[in-house]
Amino acid sequence: MQILRDLPALRAAVATLKSDGKPLALVPTMGALHDGHMALVEEARRQGRHVVVSIFVNPRQFGPNEDLDAYPRREAKDAQLLQAAGVDILWAPSVEVMYPAGYATNIRVSGVSEGLDGAARPGHFDGVATVVTKLFNQVAPDVAIFGEKDYQQLAVIRRMVTDTNLDIEIIGMPTQRAEDGLALSSRNAYLSEQERKDALALPRALGEAKRQIEKGEPVEAALARAIATLASHGFDPIDYVTLCDADSLEPIATLDRPARLLSAAKLGKTRLIDNIAVDPA
Question: Is there a catalytic annotation at residue 124?
Answer without folding.
Answer: no
